[in-house]
Amino acid sequence: MKAVELNMPDEIYKKLENLASQDQQSVSAFALRKLEELARAVEDFKDLEGRGKRGSREKFNSSMAKVLKVPPIAGDEL
Hints:
Elements: H1 10-22, H2 27-54, H3 57-65
Helix pairs in contact: 1-2
């Protein structure tokens, strides 16, 4: 495991400290978990972006043409 030293403003550290204590975690453990979540989210976004680039309006319209034309369920109207 690698160690990273991170300098941050005191107010940011205090926020992290408060959030970590609410989760009953150390600041280090809380920050690590949040960094993991951020890295995963960035990877997921890149994957979705790549999938979006492979799509086309023609394929979308073709797929939507297969959807049955029925009235929406009550509460789902536009």
